[in-house]
């Protein structure tokens, strides 16, 4: 398109009866012909490479969301696709596309189940921060908010001593964006509320009850948008997170654990073993822990429920080759059986 515009502009500004353009058309064509052909060929090649890069991005997104197969292997393939795209989409020439791929790489590394967890999270942070060189609050406020939100999640997953100060700072940034953009972007607002709740629920060494209360309010706010009918996956995630916040709330009110159990059981209406094996296993483990810690009711029945949930979780983790998580649950099974004797 660039060549057509330049030639078109020259013709419109120069065509006059008896002008130099009229008298020297054939000479100009002979001179311009090789330049135009070379430029057009270069333009075609650049277009082809850009299309291939976009195809790699789409393939990477497909691997990232693939519900079947080995999760770790799928994400490794997604990383390869993103890196292939970045050989064409440079920060200088394709800054916005480049930032999008950087953000995608951050998401993949943050969810990578294999390798050194801390190292994967550090990689994710580097990619998110690279994306923020392009996604500024002034020029791309929504993308900036989403990337800040992703950073908050990663920091909240780091060891607590490293993460507390930073993840609260990141959460404050996304909370500010909630107020500015909530009415215009309800889905994004709800997602940030969900993840802000996660930050509050994990970064609470000194003011546990206060921050967990804030986390609960954030999750409940998200659920005003995330309904089970319209957004079942997001609704189930928020229910699971709300259950965890209630389970961690140490107020002396055993009703909190009961409410946590209700949230986990609600999430499992969507998070089935067949459709969402990883999420199903995580929620089964959380539900088992809630029953294990429940001090009221029939203790034998609570233990039976906890063991059934743990066994489900171990089976789910084994099915997707998340062996470290499966081993942790196996330890819970063994200690629960011992405690039940």
Provide structural commentary.
The chain has helices at 2-14, 20-23, 25-64, 71-86, 95-111, 117-131, 141-157, 160-181, 186-202, 208-225, 232-248, 255-267, 277-293, 299-319, 323-340. The chain has 341 residues and is mainly alpha-helical. The protein has a domain at 47-62 and 72-134: Serine Threonine Protein Phosphatase 5, Tetratricopeptide repeat. The longest helix has 40 residues, at 25-64. Mean pLDDT is 77; it is low at 1-31 and 161-165.
CATH topology of the domain at 47-62 and 72-134: Serine Threonine Protein Phosphatase 5, Tetratricopeptide repeat
CATH C-level label of the domain at 47-62 and 72-134 = Mainly Alpha
Mean pLDDT: 77
In which range does the helix fraction lie?
over 70%
Please give the CATH architecture of the domain at 47-62 and 72-134: Alpha Horseshoe
Give me the number of helical elements.
15
**Low-pLDDT runs:** 1-31, 161-165
For the biggest sheet, the summary is: none
Distance between the termini: 78 Å
Oligomer: single chain
The number of strands is: 0
Order of helices and strands: HHHHHHHHHHHHHHH
Structural class: mainly alpha
Proportion of beta-strand residues: under 5%
Radius of gyration: 27 Å
The shape is: globular
């Amino acid at each position: 398109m660039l060549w057509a515009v330049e030639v078109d502009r020259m013709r419109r500004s120069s065509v006059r009866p008896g002008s130099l353009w009229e008298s020297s058309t054939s000479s100009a064509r002979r001179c311009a012909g090789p330049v135009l052909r070379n430029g057009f060929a270069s333009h075609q090649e650049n277009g082809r490479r850009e299309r291939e890069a976009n195809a790699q991005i789409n393939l990477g997104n497909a691997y990232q969301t693939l519900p079947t197969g080995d999760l770790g292997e799928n994400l490794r393939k997604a990383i390869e696709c993103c890196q292939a795209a970045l050989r064409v989409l440079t920060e200088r020439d394709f800054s916005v596309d480049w930032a999008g791929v950087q953000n995608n790489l951050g998401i993949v590394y943050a969810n990578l189940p294999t390798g050194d967890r801390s190292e994967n999270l550090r990689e994710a942070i580097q990619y998110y921060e690279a994306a923020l060189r392009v996604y500024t609050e002034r020029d791309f406020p929504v993308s900036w908010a989403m990337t800040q939100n992703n950073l908050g999640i990663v920091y909240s997953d780091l060891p607590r001593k490293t993460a507390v100060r930073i993840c609260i700072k990141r959460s404050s940034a996304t909370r500010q964006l909630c107020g500015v953009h909530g009415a215009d972007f309800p889905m994004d607002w709800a997602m940030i509320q969900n993840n802000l709740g996660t930050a509050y629920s994990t970064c609470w060494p000194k003011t546990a009850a206060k921050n967990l209360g804030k986390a609960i309010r954030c999750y409940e706010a998200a659920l005003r948008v995330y309904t089970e009918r319209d957004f079942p996956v997001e609704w189930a995630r928020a229910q699971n997170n709300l259950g965890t916040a209630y389970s961690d709330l140490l107020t002396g009110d055993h009703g909190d654990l009961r409410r946590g159990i209700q949230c986990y059981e609600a999430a499992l209406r969507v998070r089935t073993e067949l459709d969402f094996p990883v999420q199903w296993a995580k929620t089964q483990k959380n539900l088992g822990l809630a029953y294990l810690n429940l001090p009221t009711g029939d203790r034998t029945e609570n233990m039976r429920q906890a063991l059934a949930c743990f066994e489900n979780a171990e089976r789910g983790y084994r099915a997707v080759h998340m062996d470290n998580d499966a081993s942790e649950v196996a330890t819970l099974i063994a200690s629960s059986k011992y405690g039940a004797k």
